[in-house]
UniProtKB/TrEMBL annotation:
The gene is LOC110977190. This is Neuropeptides capa receptor-like. Keywords: G-protein coupled receptor, Membrane, Receptor, Transducer, Transmembrane, Transmembrane helix. Residues 377-397 have a biased composition (Polar residues). It comes from Acanthaster planci. Residues 72-348 form the G-protein coupled receptors family 1 profile domain. InterPro entries: GPCR_Rhodpsn (IPR000276), GPCR_Rhodpsn_7TM (IPR017452).
Amino acid sequence: MTAYQRSLAGTTGGGLAGVTDLAPAEDTEQPICEFFFNLTSPEEVEYFTYSQGDVLYLTVFLPIILVVGVLDNAAFMYVVLRLPRMRTVTNCYLVGLSVADIIFLVFAIGSKLLCYVKSPISGDDNPLGLAGCQLNQFMVNTSYFASLCFITLVSWERFNGVCRPHRRRDTKVRVAANVAASTVLSGIVSASLLFSFDSVTIECIDWPSSPLYARWPDERLLCISANDWADKYSFAAQTAPFFISLVANTLLYFKIIQGLDQSLRRTQQSNHRKSRDASTRNQVARMLVINGVALFALLAPFEIMSLFRLIAMFRDDQFILPYDVRQSLTYVARVASYFNSIVNPVIYTVLSSRYREAFQIAFLPARCRPRHKASDNSHPGSTGRSGTMTTKAESRM
């Protein structure tokens, strides 16, 4: 076991009083009771149970994040499917991003809630089992890598729309191929990370003699990696795509902002109608840039923590920060990654009148919908039509 795995088992930093390490059982397929914990005091029990902060986090905060994230991403997908003018190249990629965010939230948060409901022991993977751990990690990592791909495709599409407006637009076949390729590539990279969840450690626990613990399970299961190299590869393969996509998107954002400045100078000399159309295109482009910046900013804390952990692995598990500080920072990083999966539709509606209008048309009664503005017609570019729905189109909804 690595030092990190031993720290999970409570065998570093002095360990727990009354703990005896047992050698793995011989001639068995799976080792039983690799560690044995004889708990005699409340302090030792607290090490294996959820704190009040954990309970609040798992019973209030995470369910709210899960519900809000699934609903607002599903609402955006509904808007795109319902309104024909919203079915653009950009929105196809954003729908893919919403699907990835929903999958991420369902598996990342759902697995934690399942373990909390099924077992009173903190960090117990028994409700999942090894197969469940692998499935959960595969889905979480696939959705994570896919979100990086989709946000990069959005940036590339906006770069072409702003800086190369005369370039031939992507066809439906090409868009579908890009979505499929991103999903398959994400799945392949995610599958390669399963080496870091190819084994389990079973800890046997002897609880204090109290009726409170009479029905508590006497085993805790931890999904781990059997090889140090697999852990190192896992953290490297997780962080590398993030920083690669961060650099690529930063360059694209720089070019997009340059293109927007040039477009603004040109529209100041054009007629009113062209100026309105260009203003709408630029508003959408700025919204997408801010959306991408928010995504990378919210994912950065977790990836930086993963990078530091990778560096520590090459330094014989010597960490700069103490364990308690790292745990607190990991909580903050996880919360930021969860928020990343719910803020995208919020950014769309707050920063773009076009998206706000689409949400109003999709969800409000006909009498409450915004009126059609004759001056807001279609504009060139891959984002499709920028104006409101026509009266005829509204009457069919």
